[in-house]
Amino acid sequence: MGVGGPDNEDNRWPSWLCPLLQTKFFVQCKFHANSHKSECNMYCLDCMNGALCSLCLAYHKDHQLIQIRRSSYHDVIRVSEIQKILDVTEVQTYIINSARIVFLNERPQPRPGKGVTNTCEVCDRGLLDSFRFCSLGCKIAGTSKNYRKEKRSDSVSEESYSSCSSSHGREKKKVQSFSPPTVVNYRTAKMRKGIPHRAPMGGFLLEY
Predict the structure, then answer these.
(1) Which percentage of the chain shows pLDDT scores above 70?
(2) pTM exceeds cut of 0.85
(3) Contact predicate 69/49, CB 8 Å
(4) CA-CA distance, 196 to 204, in Å (whole number)?
(5) Cα–Cα distance measured from residue 79 to residue 17, given in angstroms and rounded to the nearest whole number
(6) How far apart are CA 206 and CA 208, in angstroms?
(7) Total number of domains constituting the chain
(8) How is residue 192 annotated by DSSP?
(9) What secondary structure letter does DSSP report for 63?
(10) Please, which residues bridge with residue 198 across strands?
(11) CA-to-CA distance for 198 and 204, rounded, in angstroms?
(12) Does residue 32 form part of some domain?
């Protein structure tokens, strides 16, 4: 059961999926920063406590771990690993280094390429005809009952996270929609409205 609760129609997603999609990988491990093996590219499905480096794995013995890889600066995972624990049908797969992979999150694309007849139902990235989504995040968003493409947020990832956990999604939207009030320097504004008068020495005097 997912993190949304029994009444959430998206509780079919495992509880670790949303945290996984939000995790930043390929950063330096804060616990093993002095090691040359400190790049974080592992994730523990049991602990769900962020990206792990190879040295962290000693503390996750007998846990279910997956490895994240990179393609063109985007996070991917091998189909052979993820399909054992998650349904990845309808998500386009790619062959990279002789291995079939899927992308974790959407990759922004201004417009489909020339001649493209099929696109991701969420982010409009060009796809082969047999697929509906370009990434796991887009599948979560696109299969959500409350998803509306014409009203989707600027970040597809945010939509996919809120589909997994409605309360978490609402909190993110509140934070992102907040904008600080505009601060006006009334003294400066008043100075700009004054009529300039030329001083005897060729300078200007401002009327306050």
Answers:
(1) 64
(2) no
(3) no
(4) 6
(5) 15
(6) 6
(7) 1
(8) H
(9) S
(10) 204
(11) 5
(12) no
